[in-house]
């Protein structure tokens, strides 16, 4: 296995973990209770959500670092931090770097969420969606061989990325639908409680 293959595999595992993390975050936002619903077990999925985020961030940092071991094209540290000067796919790699920076921002602000305050932290946490959009675009449009070959959207890895993106889009749509239903039922409940 070459460093390029390893970098690609690490990136895919990070993407899968980030997808799971976003889906768990959406469940947390609707106060999903695993004891009352599937899997009918008590477990702290808030902690699981945090740890998948930490591990995914570490893998997202490792993903480009492994490119330093690739002989051709030769990446420099500055190319990883600021990809537009890189030897291959500079603009799509810039989206990957921006995704990494947004993810780091989300993880760091989440670590200090008590100090920041819930309302302000929640607004900052929406950067997770920006990070997700960027890492899906990066995953779909990157040539894993770094030869600027045309993208095969039906390649197994690309289909995996596309499925993950679709799952997050569908789950986000369901979350927005849930929020709209909650808004419609709250005024009715408030009026009936005042009348009583």
Could you describe the 3D structure shown?
This protein is an all-alpha fold and 196 residues long. The chain has eight helices and no strands. It has helices at residues 3-29, 45-65, 77-81, 90-111, 113-116, 118-125, 127-141, 156-195. It is elongated. The mean pLDDT is 92.
Query: Which stretches are poorly predicted, pLDDT < 50 over at least 5 residues?
Result: none
Query: What average pLDDT do the residues reach?
Result: 92
Structural class: mainly alpha
Overall outline: elongated
Head-to-tail CA distance between termini:
70 Å
Largest sheet descriptor: none
Approximately what portion of the residues adopt beta-strand conformation? under 5%
C-alpha Rg, in Å? 20 Å
Please trace the helix and strand order, writing H or E for each element. Answer: HHHHHHHH
Tally of separate helices: 8
Helix-residue proportion = over 70%
How many strand segments? 0
Describe the secondary structure blueprint for this structure:
Blueprint: H1 3-29, H2 45-65, H3 77-81, H4 90-111, H5 113-116, H6 118-125, H7 127-141, H8 156-195
Helix pairs in contact: 1-2, 1-7, 1-8, 2-4, 4-7, 7-8
List keywords for this structure.
single chain; 196 residues; mainly alpha; 72% helix; 0% strand
In short, what is this structure?
By secondary structure, this protein is mostly helical. Helices cover 72% and strands 0% of the residues. The chain is built from eight helices and no strands.
């Amino acid at each position: 296995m070459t460093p390029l293959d390893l970098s690609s595999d690490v990136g895919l595992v990070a993407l899968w973990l980030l997808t799971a993390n976003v889906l768990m975050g959406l469940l947390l936002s609707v106060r999903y209770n695993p004891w009352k619903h599937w899997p009918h077990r008590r477990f702290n999925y808030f902690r699981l959500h945090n740890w998948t985020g930490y591990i995914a961030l570490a893998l997202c940092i490792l993903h480009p670092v492994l490119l330093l071991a690739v002989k051709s094209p030769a990446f420099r540290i500055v190319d990883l931090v600021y990809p537009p000067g890189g030897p291959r796919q500079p603009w799509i790699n810039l989206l990957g770097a921006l995704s990494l920076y947004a993810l780091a921002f989300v993880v760091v602000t989440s670590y200090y969420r008590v100090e920041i305050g819930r309302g302000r932290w929640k607004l900052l946490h929406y950067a997770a969606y920006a990070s997700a959009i960027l890492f899906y675009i990066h995953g779909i449009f990157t040539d894993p061989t770094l030869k600027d070959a045309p993208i095969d959207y039906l390649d197994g890895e690309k289909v995996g990325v596309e499925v993950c993106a679709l799952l997050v889009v569908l789950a986000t749509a369901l979350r927005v639908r849930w929020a709209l239903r909650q808004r419609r039922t709250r005024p009715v409940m408030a009026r009936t409680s005042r009348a009583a």
